[in-house]
Fold this sequence. Notes:
Layout: H1 3-21, H2 23-60, E1 63-67, H3 73-85, E2 89-95, H4 97-112, E3 126-131, H5 137-148, E4 154-158, H6 161-203, H7 205-213, H8 218-262, H9 273-316
Antiparallel strand pairs: 1-3, 1-4, 2-3
Helix pairs in contact: 1-8, 2-6, 2-8, 6-8, 6-9, 8-9
Amino acid sequence: MSSAIQALLIGLRTTISNIRANKQTFLISVMTIAISIGILGLFLIVFFNLNGLLTSWNQHVQLVVYLGDDISPSQKSDLQDLFKLNAEVQSMEEVSKERAWQEFKLKQMDRAGVDLDLGFNPLPASFRIRFTVSDNRSLHIREFAEQIRGEPGVESVEYGEKWLGRFEKFMLICRVFLLGVGILLSLGLILIISNTIRLSIYSRQDEIELMLLIGATPRFVKIPFLLEGMLQGLSGSLISLGLMGTIYIYIKNEFQPSIESIARGMDFQFISQPFLLMLVGLSVLIGFVASYISTYQFMQARSEERRVGKECRSRWSP
């Protein structure tokens, strides 16, 4: 058995001994990590589902090209050729003035029970353009809208650019917010775990001093505390994933029909596997960093004490 594996096994046994001696402190740290990672995970679930909602809405967005009343047949034909030349266009539907007016009156009848009869048709003819589903679908719609906005015979174009742009800005704010929350929670967890490991170190200070006196290296002394911090992070993240999974199953069972009514075809999502692994890895990394900080500070303080002690002995020796 190599010395590295032997040191690791000894470190594991020492870690278990430390946890048993400081059960309450260890459990408090683990639950704090679980709550913090759980909060971050719930924000991730909300973000993923908002992003899914945006994707679902994007799939139903179509470009409506309103035509002027004085458009000539040749201008209309040129527009149709322009639509056909765009590889991102999935389908094109021409809507006459009469059909647009009839559809509008039916909607008003269904919503307000009002049968409109103005004596004239105020609505223009139009083309309804649908685009293929892609990652850059909204960008293609926006660019094509700008391209045909100034074409002859085009009165205006409409694709819900205002609400779509606002929602995209909102998603950008959510990303920044998630990043900020993640950084703050990580810093808080580092402080909590660091203090926990520091308490464990000082509770075994005499034992550590003895180990160093009989020849143990600082690395050998650090291993149990590094493992303890990583174990705290791992345990807390697994507990938080269990809690998040329970909350997700409850919400999905209770509110999935309501979600489908808001966004047709959208399924309430859990955190994807790469992000789940990222949360676990982040927790373990936080535990390692916090433990390393505590052990490094302890070793530095001990080295400083030994240096000061040597200076005092040399100064007062005859």
